[in-house]
Design brief:
The longest helix has 15 residues, at 168-182. It is elongated and about 70 Å long. The protein is mostly helical. It has helices at residues 29-36, 38-48, 55-65, 70-80, 88-96, 105-112, 168-182. The chain starts with 28 loop residues before the first helix and ends in a 10-residue tail after the last helix. 38% of the residues lie in helices and 0% in strands. The protein has two domains: 26-139, no CATH class; 149-192, no CATH class.
Length: 192
């Protein structure tokens, strides 16, 4: 008696690496981020062990999971609810105060530096132009540099940091005009 042939597995689409991790579904993104990002995993394990969290550690924990929206917020509530210091209203307030620009890896390392071993957070990413390393890259979400921070060839770069500081020439001219008008006058604008 012959056995039925095994069903064929669908062949991967062109360009897909065989054995590559599938794209995370939105339901398990927080757990996946905690597993893939060493800093997030370290903070979650620390929170679950009832070890005290410093203000910086709590700040980083919130900023890592807040960009995941409701799923990230629910995950944080679930991880922190057994702690003595857990206040759901305070956590919600802090989650809603997070800016839409995700926290980068350098900021995470800097804020956790006294407590967190630097070797545990040494992820290397290959990112496209305009992207920056952040914990969300572990979920294939590549944050982009905000528009005000992006180097603009037409804008002046006074201190060499790549930030746009507005139209400095217009501001400089206005200030010089103000000084010229102010010269020789007292605080009330009267001639000296």
């Amino acid at each position: 008696m012959k056995s039925a042939p095994a069903p064929k597995r669908p062949s991967p689409s062109p360009g897909t690496k065989i054995g590559a991790s599938p794209a995370p579904s939105s339901s398990n993104e927080p757990e996946l981020l905690a597993r893939r990002c060493p800093a997030a995993g370290w903070l979650i394990r620390r929170a679950q062990s009832d070890a005290p969290l410093t203000a910086n550690q709590m700040h980083v924990l919130i900023h890592i999971f807040a960009p995941l929206g409701t799923k990230g917020a629910l995950y944080l509530h679930r991880m922190l609810r057994d702690r003595d210091t857990y206040h759901p209203d305070e956590l919600n307030r802090r989650l809603h105060a997070v800016s839409p620009q995700p926290m980068g890896c350098e900021t995470v390392r800097r804020k956790l530096s006294p407590d967190h071993p630097r070797e545990a957070c040494c992820c290397v990413f290959s990112l496209p132009e305009g992207g920056y390393p952040a914990p969300l890259v572990h979920l294939d979400r590549i944050p982009k540099v905000a528009g005000r921070m992006r180097k603009n060839p037409g804008a002046p770069d006074v201190d060499g940091d790549g930030r746009i500081h507005g139209d400095l020439s217009r501001r400089t001219r206005a200030r010089a005009e103000w000084r010229r008008l102010k010269k020789g006058k007292d605080r009330r604008g009267r001639e000296k």
